[in-house]
């Protein structure tokens, strides 16, 4: 329930960023006949990527730090989800902008990425719950995978390769799908993982990363 509620709070944060102040914004982007107004909060977040990164890490580490403090931990979880929803809003805006101009893999990348994320996450979680297999052996490989994806992402900042970016996103879907199995298994088999908020934070991050990776793939241009 905590995980589901955190996704709802994240969606609410994204909606605030995407629609708040749109009527007063004077910035428009697009190609040809397709033009759309850039929401002020989306523009603000997009213009300060390093601050956005710092806020994202701060929200996650802050919520994780207080996850054992009753009452505060739930507020921190929902606060983290709301903040991350706001910070991820530019990715949603760009995906919808690309779809509006046409030529993307999906005509509605946000909807399709969310549906695929729910189906994939639900299937993996259900498998881990019913089989009750211990996937703790994946820990070392997943840690290495995170560093590989992170290094490749930094490298692609300089390369600017769309094909390489799609490859990174594809690996990301598989990586965080494996993390769903790993984190669900930890909740089932580890004695020191009894805090519901800590488990919700990990599952939320797995889901969001799967969603963002699928969003990048589906909003990429076919050419």
UniProtKB/TrEMBL annotation:
Keyword Transmembrane helix listed: yes
Q: Which Pfam families match?
A: Bax1-I
Q: Which InterPro entries match?
A: Bax_inhibitor_1-related
Q: What are the alphabetically sorted keywords of the record?
A: Cell membrane, Membrane, Transmembrane, Transmembrane helix
Q: Where are the transmembrane segments?
A: 46-66, 73-93, 113-130, 137-158, 164-182, 203-220
Q: Which GO terms describe its cellular component?
A: plasma membrane
In the record, the note on similarity to other proteins reads: Belongs to the BI1 family.
Record protein name field: Integral membrane protein
Please report the organism this UniProt entry assigns to the protein. Answer: Chondromyces apiculatus DSM 436
